[in-house]
Amino acid sequence: MEDLSDIRHEIDDIDNAILDLFQKRMDCAERVAAYKRTNNLPVLDRSRERAHMAALADKAPEDLRTYTEVLFQLLMEASRARQGKRLAAEHAPKALAAIDQACETTADLFPREAYVACQGVEGAYSQFAADRIFKHPLISYFESFEGVFRAVETDFSRYGVLPIENSTAGSVNKVYDLMMQHDFHIVRTTRVKIDHNLLAKPGTTVEQIHDVYSHEQAINQCAGFIERMGLTPHVVENTAMAAKSVADSDRTDVAALSSRACAQLYGLDVLMRDVQDRDDNYTRFACISKQLEIYPGADRTSLMIVVNHRPGTLFKALAKFYALDINIIKLESRPIPGRDFEFMFYFDVECPVTAPEFRTLMATIGDACEECRYLGSYSEVL
Ligand SMILES: C=C(O[C@@H]1C=C(C(=O)O)C=C[C@H]1O)C(=O)O
């Protein structure tokens, strides 16, 4: 039997040789970058990469072919990232120019007062979020999320506030799907702690309740409670509308899952408090605008990416973030309507908009995907 430490010594020697060669390869990449700068060429040369990769895969033993491709994919990614750093400024794409301009023209302070579109009615959680983002939001309510997107697109409201994800129930799919169909930018996000309560008309007892109304997400966040109590859930547009409809109803066997603020607002009693299945229940909201506005301190960026339907394409996009040491905070995928199981990937990444790696990312992300849409850079307020 071979000795383990002997084999590991051998691995150490091989890795040292690889490291030496890796440095040499990266030096070559620098020289290629200098050539490209002089000759005004882009970093990515797809046909060279394809031909080179095919030649390498051909030389590799059959059982190592996939590993070989993964290894060289990463090496090329690193070499492009290093070149991108040098060439980012020269080959600044449209998105970077727009980002620079937005950074220059956006006010230093986020507005305290503004016209804001929210979905729902008075008392909706979107209202709490709007109150947190702006000191004095002048809120218009819309029945649907689509109404909020349209209000912003048509300049009816300068901003819109939309729920995007919940820590218990996950992403708000409808909002992500609408993002594909509308033009907008993200200028801020916030997190609101959500406590759901069982609200009913004054004088009603818990025992009388059979049917419970709320938003789909709230129903999901209280699924255990609903089952334990033997209640029948009914989905309505949002939690505040649920409270309003219970208040307007003649029935005495209905209740709403909603906020305590809504109990006050609609004259309902709180029959049970904090009935959500988890106590650490938060919802993240995004504040959207029509114009790109980037306020000082923006350290998060949202991107929508479409990659080809081939093995390794998402990996290539992910490798780009990895090579630049950029942390991905969220990755969501949604099917693209009308395209056979093709997906749109939403990325939230953590990187100050002023960091050089952000510029490199924006200058080169287009090389790793079929389509890339920049949604904005912003900070999250707590
Ligand atoms: C190094 C180059 O730049 C890029 C990186 C490559 C690599 O690391 O092998 C190949 C092609 C280019 O996309 C080059 O053009 O040769």
Automatic annotation (TrEMBL):
Domain ACT: 302-379
Enzyme Commission number: 4.2.1.51
Catalytic activity: chorismate = prephenate; prephenate + H(+) = 3-phenylpyruvate + CO2 + H2O
Subcellular location: Cytoplasm
Pfam families with a match to the protein in the record: CM_2, PDT
Limits of the Prephenate dehydratase domain: 115-290
Cytoplasm keyword on record: yes
Top-rank EC class of the record's enzyme: lyase
PANTHER family: PREPHENATE DEHYDRATASE P PROTEIN, PREPHENATE DEHYDRATASE-RELATED
Role, per record: Catalyzes the Claisen rearrangement of chorismate to prephenate and the decarboxylation/dehydration of prephenate to phenylpyruvate.
Record-given protein name: Bifunctional chorismate mutase/prephenate dehydratase
Organism: Tractidigestivibacter montrealensis
Organism classification: Bacteria, Bacillati, Actinomycetota, Coriobacteriia, Coriobacteriales
